Amino acid sequence: SDRFTDATYAYQVGGKGFSGSEVEALETWTLGAFRPDGTVLFDLSPEVAAARRAVRSGGDDRFERESAEFFARVREAYLDRAQRNPERFLIVNAESSADEIEREIARWVDSLVRRKGGEA
After folding, report:
1. What pLDDT sits at residue 89?
2. Cβ(88)–Cβ(36) under 8 Å?
3. What span, in angstroms and rounded, lies between the C-alpha atoms of 47 and 27?
């Protein structure tokens, strides 16, 4: 999956200012203890993200039209979530080269699979 309730948390709590405890309670009510085994968080400053969006084709969606402050809050909410759940998050510096990012994720996935008792 490319999204999960981590995105809901970041955008609703960080971006929109909803209560974190209420969003987490709703998450637990709907999902119980189910969470992803692993989440890759591509960390990038809102300024760099905006510059990258500016050069790609296609228009911005309703979230992409939000302010830089909105995205700074979303980023902080993601990072907070990752800090509180380090066993399942890999934070990747998304300003690194594609090759570096690929190697980092491959190592992490290999480690994750081994921790979960599978073969990589």
Report:
1. 96
2. yes
3. 30
Predicted local distance difference test score (pLDDT) of residue 96: 95
Question: Which of 65, 69, 42 minimizes the C-alpha distance to 53?
Answer: 65
Contact 103, 39 (CB under 8 A): no
- Inter-residue contact 70 to 15 (CB < 8 Å): yes
Which positions ≥6 away from 47 have C-beta within 8 Å? 68
For residues 5 and 31, is the Cβ–Cβ distance under 8 A?
A: yes
**From the first residue on, what is the mean pLDDT of each consecutive set of 10 residues in the chain (120 residues)?**
86 94 94 92 91 75 78 95 95 96 96 80
